Amino acid sequence: MRCVSNPIALKDLLENVLQKYRRWEDVRNRLRRLEEEFEFGRIDQSRYTELKNKYQEELEKIWDQTITTNLKNNHKTLTICRGKAMRIGRGL
After folding, report:
1. Among 20, 35, 55, 84, fewest CB within 10 Å belongs to which?
2. Closest CA to 37 of 49, 23, 22
3. What is the pLDDT, as a whole number, of residue 84?
């Protein structure tokens, strides 16, 4: 038997994770392009270091927001079962 006790909460959770993943991926692509520009000598060391630190801080911020969002959503109890019941939500 497969079931989800609160499909709306699951949908919201998945949309939130997908949105943050896209944002994370965008920042990673900007970081990758920055590294290519530096390798080709199109930007200097100080600018490279400044932007790299900025992008890394953005990545950490996205990760921190994901953890915080998931912790805040713990008040919503979501039961997912596949043979046995598993609870996601309070008490994690």
Report:
1. 84
2. 49
3. 41
Global confidence as pTM: 0.62
At residue 21, what is the residue type?
Y
3-state secondary structure of 91: coil
- Residue 59 tokens read as 């990545």
- The residue range of the domain holding 60 is 2-88
Q: What is the pLDDT, as a whole number, of residue 83?
A: 42
Token pair 């713990």 is found at 74
User: CA–CA separation, 17 vs 1, rounded Å?
Assistant: 26
DSSP code for 81:
E
pLDDT at 72: 59
Predicted confidence (pLDDT) per residue in 10-57, tens digit = 888 888 888 889 999 999 999 999 999 999 999 999 999 999 999 999
Q: What is the tally of structural domains in the chain?
A: 1
User: How many Cα atoms sit within 13 Å of 68 on the Cβ side?
Assistant: 7
Name the residue with tokens 């939130």.
Answer: 16
